[in-house]
Amino acid sequence: MVNGGFRKLFHKGNHHRYQRLSLLNFTEISKEYGYESEEHTVITEDGYVLTLFRIPRGKNCHFTVQRTPVLIMHGLLLSSDSWIDSGPEAGLAYLISDDCYDLWAGNVRGNYYSRSHTRMNPDKDPEFWKFSLNEFGVYDLPAIIDYILDHTRSVKLNYIGYSQSSGSFVIMCSENPGYCDKVRFAIFLHPAAKMTNAKSQALRIITEACQILEPDLQNALELEALPKDGHIQKFVHDICQNDFIADKICRSILTLLDSYNPGSISVSTIRALTGHFPAGTSVRHMAWFSQVLNKEEFQNFDYGPVINMKIYGRNQPTTYNCNATTAPVVIIHGENDNIVSKKDVEWLKNQLPNVLEVVYVKNPLWNHFDVPYSQHTREMIYPKISEYLFKYSGNGVEL
């Protein structure tokens, strides 16, 4: 059933089932496929309430679970659901847990799983939405890491960061160096840091619009960008439940944002993912991407010279110290990625002090969205992930 049954289900499709799956949450979806999962709540130092999911043991794990937990973090406008939307044969959360790792999937502030605060109301308080990637690295990742280590009684964990979550890891190590010591090693999947050479014109247009609008927005709901259950997400979800539209129009939207890789993402996955994407973030975070797309530095948010002087004590925003990322790092990238270019990946590699290996996926059409959603994840990127997880998953528990 695992190999033949799921493959038949995913490739021939089951319209009604995938329409229903697109409306379920992480624990409900994983339960559909026989995976027991847990939901955990993490509170950051500055009061944001984050939701964290755990698959403590994969359905197909027949050995002792490795003691070093694995934390996997999502990309821009995504959530932890992105790691299960492509199903048990391809979703990284399933593949990792089936290899007997204690898998944790996190969510950063502002998406639909982490749209809460101990004091502020995201619907009424504009201050809730005044964050960018900096806060993910300074507050969210440290809180999540501390929670996992405390809950599992582990000394260290292994980290997998996709796109923006590679950049937030570098920020964490730059601003909170002690947290790098809590990570055995990190895998950066298509890492987004400096992005000057990105080819995606759609990304540039969307983020530039946010950069222009952000200073004049005052209302809390205006400061939230592309939320789940917003007009755009609901419209895209509804039309993409039709197989023909999903294959032709919705696939074209992904291609417009990134690049073309025919047949990599199945129609059933497109139907499922549109229930969870876009997942929401702040307009300021989107504006930060506009800035980083036009700067030769990996730097904090640029408020303009006057406010920069008040916040940073200088006219320009502070840059992050990539050299502080002392944890061993493996980078995996695809050369058809129009969001994060090979040139910018090479730049990041040269800034990091402890890169073990840079791997370029053998499929020349492998792109940015293939990482969470491709039906070929098991063959294209998982062997290298599995290799390093096995190598760095020693006894991390204090007994």
From TrEMBL:
<dbReference type="Pfam" id="PF04083">
    <property type="entry name" value="Abhydro_lipase"/>
</dbReference>
<comment type="similarity">
    <text>Belongs to the AB hydrolase superfamily. Lipase family.</text>
</comment>
<keyword id="KW-0325">Glycoprotein</keyword>
<feature type="domain" description="Partial AB-hydrolase lipase">
    <location>
        <begin position="27"/>
        <end position="85"/>
    </location>
</feature>
<keyword id="KW-0443">Lipid metabolism</keyword>
<keyword id="KW-0442">Lipid degradation</keyword>
<dbReference type="InterPro" id="IPR006693">
    <property type="entry name" value="AB_hydrolase_lipase"/>
</dbReference>
<dbReference type="GO" id="GO:0016787">
    <property type="term" value="F:hydrolase activity"/>
</dbReference>
<keyword id="KW-0732">Signal</keyword>
<dbReference type="InterPro" id="IPR025483">
    <property type="entry name" value="Lipase_euk"/>
</dbReference>
<protein>
    <recommendedName>
        <fullName>Lipase</fullName>
    </recommendedName>
</protein>
<keyword id="KW-0378">Hydrolase</keyword>
<dbReference type="GO" id="GO:0016042">
    <property type="term" value="P:lipid catabolic process"/>
</dbReference>
